[in-house]
Structures are given as C-alpha cells and as structure tokens.
UniProtKB/TrEMBL annotation:
Keywords: Amino-acid biosynthesis, Aromatic amino acid biosynthesis, Lyase, Tryptophan biosynthesis
Family label: Belongs to the TrpA family.
InterPro entries noted in UniProt: Aldolase_TIM (IPR013785), RibuloseP-bd_barrel (IPR011060), Trp_synthase_suA (IPR002028)
UniProt KW Amino-acid biosynthesis keyword: yes
Enzyme category, top tier: lyase
Subunit structure: Tetramer of two alpha and two beta chains.
Pfam families attached to this UniProt entry: Trp_syntA (PF00290)
Name of the featured protein: tryptophan synthase
Recorded catalytic activity of this chain's protein: (1S,2R)-1-C-(indol-3-yl)glycerol 3-phosphate + L-serine = D-glyceraldehyde 3-phosphate + L-tryptophan + H2O
Molecular functions per Gene Ontology: tryptophan synthase activity
HAMAP family noted in UniProt: Trp_synth_alpha
GO CC terms, sorted: cytosol
Length: 215
C-alpha cells in the first residue's frame, strides 16, 4: 500500500486508502505472503507497487525478507531502469526478478534497455492511462507485443483495461500472460464485509477467464 499510487485508477487508489487506514504495511504483506506459501509453494508471486515502501525498508532488507517470505518478482512502477542498478543488485542474489513496464509510446531502443535491465517477464501497459481504464484495443496491443518480441526473448505480460473473459481471451492470443487487477479489487470493494462472497465472485471471474483463454 502507498499513499500516492499515481499509476492507478480510482479502484486501486481507494484500496490503498483502505489498507493505509488499517495500517497495513509492506511487512504485513510479507506476512500474508508467508501464510500463502505455507499452502502453495509453486505459484509464482510478484509484488507490484511503488518504490517508497521498498526504499523505507531498504533494498537489502527487502530482498532478504522478500526471498524468505517467498517473493519471486518485484515490479515498481515508478522506478526507471536507468536508476535501478542498486535495487537490481540487491535482488539478484535472492533470485527476485526486477520487472519493468513498457508503454504504447516506448521506442525500440528504450525497449532494449528495459529488457536488458529486467528479468522474469516484461509488463506491457495496454493503453495510455491508469489501471482500470475502459478502452482495450487488442489489435494495437498485438502490434506492440510483436514489436517488443523482436528485441527481447523475455515473456510479455499485458495488463490495464482487462475486465472480462472476452478481454482475457483476446489478449491471451497475442501475449504470454494476462494481468488482471482492478476488476478483482472492485469485487473486494463491493463485498468488503463478506469474505465468502469475495472468494466466490473472484473465483467465478477467474474461472471464466481461464475457460475463455483455453478455448
């Protein structure tokens, strides 16, 4: 959770506000990760957020505790690759992948630089805007994913604007991974006092997406 989630739309902004109101910290998230790992040691787990909480914890401390908790990757949306050397050096011994964003306006030479700095996968932002935005142009996504794949062998995940099973299926045809965030967080917001409904509704959403992607 972070007080100024500038890349996120209203849904995740409100989620950050709720988390901070209840004093949820990065250390709390790591404890949740440890609990998750006691049940699932296989599913990859990536933290996506902002640099301030990582800076406050310290790169080395974050990397050590993150690895012990079971973190596989870190995507900090406000960390430019050009300024990430110290962070990457801290993550590397602990096998935590530094993951970076690519946007519709990222030029080929910069794609190469970002791909060289990152590992795990590249995250392509499918549109100009914030998380939860409404317009998804799959043809445009396909064009940019093809451009990225010509300069990097890293898998490409696509996120922003993916809300339905149809969206997920369309993006899955052109990308290696489909990233879904705001629509899940919205389900939590709509059922904030009903944990069972949260689990049921998220399960139904993801099952529908999985079925559509596999068909």
């Amino acid at each position: 959770p972070f007080s100024d989630p500038m890349a996120d739309g209203p849904t995740i902004q409100l989620a950050c506000e709720r988390a901070l109101k209840h004093q949820v910290s990065l250390r709390d998230v790591m404890e949740m990760t440890r609990e998750f790992r006691r049940q699932d040691a296989i599913t990859p787990l990536v933290y996506m957020g902002y640099m301030n909480p990582v800076e406050a914890m310290g790169y080395e401390n974050f990397a050590k505790q993150g690895a012990e908790a079971g973190v596989d990757g870190l995507l900090t949306v406000d960390m430019p690759p050009e300024e990430s050397e110290d962070l990457r050096q801290a993550l590397k011994p602990h096998d935590i992948d530094p993951i970076f964003l690519l946007s519709p306006t990222t030029q080929p030479q910069r794609i190469k630089k970002i791909a060289a700095a990152g590992s795990g996968f590249l995250y392509y932002v499918s549109l100009k805007g914030v998380t939860g935005s409404n317009v998804l142009d799959v043809d445009d996504v396909a064009k940019h994913v093809d451009k990225i794949s010509k300069v990097s062998d890293l898998p490409i995940g696509v996120g922003f604007g993916i809300k339905t099973a149809e969206d997920a299926a369309a993006v899955a045809k052109v990308a290696d991974a489909v990233v879904v965030g705001s629509v899940i967080v919205k389900i939590i917001e709509n059922n904030i006092d009903d944990a069972e409904s949260i689990m049921d509704d998220i399960g139904d959403l993801l099952a529908g997406m999985r079925t559509a992607m596999d068909s």
